[in-house]
Amino acid sequence: MFFFLQRAIVLHSTTRLIPMLQQIRKGLELYGLVDQMAANPEACRSLFVPGNIIKPDADFIMMSVQPNFSEKGTSKERTERKIINFLQDFLQEVETSDGETERAAGDAEPVAVPHVLQWMTGQSHIPILPDEKETFQK
């Protein structure tokens, strides 16, 4: 079951991200910036990466998840808690496997915790700006 979830996360992040990056690249090519970035990657890094990127871990995601469970004692609430427990187990397995999980044919890379965060929120790193951090917690 973890395999199918991993594959869904990889496909989702890849299919959303690649067209956006291709469009940015086309725009940068208009001004010859792609060649400059290839020649001077470290000098150009600060233009696209604000500060140090902190990679998330399973604990960060679980602390950020704030589910609103159904009424206590109902079967729906028990099911929701099982789903959260499954998510926690999945994240811990992804984190401990550290790229050692089997890949399906055609997968570019194994799933990592940043991929899961990107699938959930649209970004694969811990929010950098204070207002992003505040919004992320909600």
Distance between the termini: 29 Å
Query: SSE order in H/E notation?
Result: HHHHHHH
Query: What's the helical proportion of residues?
Result: 55-70%
From the alpha carbons, calculate the radius of gyration and give it in angstroms: 18 Å
Query: What is the overall number of helices?
Result: 7
Mean pLDDT: 81
Shape: elongated
Number of structurally distinct domains: 1
Largest sheet: none
Could you tell me the strand content as a percent range?
A: under 5%
Residue stretches low in confidence (pLDDT < 50, at least 5 long) are none
Q: Care to count the β-strands? A: 0
Structural classification? mainly alpha
Description of the structure:
This protein has 138 residues and is mainly alpha-helical. The protein has one domain (2-137). The chain has 7 helices and no strands. The longest helix is centred in the N-terminal third of the chain and has 29 residues, at 2-30. The radius of gyration is 18 Å and the shape is elongated. The mean pLDDT is 81.
